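User: Teach me something about this protein's shape.
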Amino acid sequence: MEQICLIDKDYVNTHIKKRDRDLHKGSCGKVLIIAGSKGMAGAAVLCARGALRSGAGLVRISAPEEIYPILQISVPEATCVSRNFSEADLEEYQAIVVGPGLGGEDSAEKSELFEKLLNYTGALVADADGLNFLSRHPELKGRFRGNLILTPHPGEAGRLLGQGASEVNSDRVGSARRLAEEWQATAVLKGPGTIVAAAFAPAYSNTTGNPGMATGGCGDVLAGMIGSLCAQGFPAETAAAAGVYLHGLAGDLAANALGEYGMTAADVAAMAALALKETIGC
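Assistant: First, the predicted structure itself:
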């Protein structure tokens, strides 16, 4: 049986250090979040808050113009940009998150979007409707030039692997490993003891988190946090592992303050800053 490494405070402290005093926002990474649609602006909001609360220097949200007012009121630190961008435009970002609240139906616009993302050379975090698009287009396996990170729950993982969620959960490490190998990606299989796996590397299991995080929007926060850490210069596997630890710890802090029943994804996003403070001391 494969040996599993644990993601704990020592792991995160090994990689994330206190910041230099002379940093500026341009030094802390620029994240593009391609998210949101009519009726699902909240997913983009939560993703952006997760990115900002975990240290990204600049966050931009690429969304339909009709939801700009919601986004700019809810996340004033982020700016809104059009989805009418070129492949060259994408290269100014160190990390891109695609999928939260994007909308579930295929369209010519969405196909064009992913064709552009294939050639992006930075870190690409695919979540939610981004994962669902990929599951319907297996021909895209292995074609992404950048560092692809997949963040599925068991149902989404099952669709990517062509099997059911129960099969995924019956062998979570093996399922994460298959995702990583088939998609040439870092796989983050969410759930109790979230599994992080990359091809030809040890698999990791997270040690933080609680049942109160089983609420809508928590995955959007996680995607933003992982994208933020990638933008700050951490390798994909490190950003994924540290991201799930800090996300889980933020959930634990929220549960301690509010209880598991009443906490929300917005509470987890808010607590991400305290999770970093508790872990690295700043």
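Now, about its shape. The chain has a mean pLDDT of 96. The longest strand covers residues 30-34. If you'd like, I can walk through any region in more detail.
User: That's plenty for now, thanks!
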